[in-house]
Amino acid sequence: xxxxxxxxxxxxxxxxxxxxxxxxxxxxxxxxxxxxxxxxxxxxxxxxxxxxxxxxxxxxxxxxxxxxxxxxxxxxxxxxxxxxxxxxxxxxxxxxxxxxxxxxxxxxxxxxxxxxxxxxxxxxxxxxxxxxxxxxxxxxxxxxxxxxxxxxxxxxxxxxxxxxxxxxxxxxxxxxxxxxxxxxxxxxxxxxxxxxxxxxxxxxxxxxxxxxxxxxxxxxxxxxxxxxxxxxxxxxxxxxxxxxxxxxxx
Length: 250
Fold this sequence. Notes:
By secondary structure, this protein is of the alpha+beta class. Helices cover 63% and strands 10% of the residues. The chain has a five-stranded mixed sheet, with helices on both faces. Strand 4 (221-224) and strand 5 (227-230) form a beta hairpin. Helix 2 (28-44) crosses helix 3 (46-74) and helix 6 runs antiparallel to helix 7. The longest helix is centred in the first third of the chain and has 29 residues, at 46-74. Residues 11-20 have low confidence and may be disordered.
């Protein structure tokens, strides 16, 4: 920020092709005079400083978007073509939405019905779920149980378990999960017996590594098309963003 402001103010008050670096050639007296002139100008025109900061923030935001797009491109196979992640929505959709989630995350729970609404109303989005438990032992237990459900009972059972865990308000314990599975019509004891399977270890380790490469540290986090979205987005914003990404694709 300091270097940026010096460059901007130098361009305002100095002339010549090397205006941004002429400060280094000033004598102490000239430098003091320059600083006094800058101070006086800013006191008379404080909006200049706000304009410069706004330009800097816009450039930083653009740079972050470009960096995130590069990260998505570099990790496209792990994001969009992993056979170990559950997929829903339209398998032939023209847009892919990847969600990193934790069942104990309040904003994940808040996003859950809105993601469901987006998938249903849009009709042309493929949804990919990445189990990313980061909020403690209960989060890890829930993710392991969900993944074990998929291994034991299949994709449809995983979706039912995923939906139930998203709205579960009780503490997540082994007993509670077994009861939940039984209520859903699954073999809770068999699912529990499989939660320490090496296959589940590998899935979670791969998801953690992918999140680290993408610089994702919180939930929910989304990848929609080539854009990385950190944090909760309401349905309306996701729907608008989906159309914007499609327009850029065409």
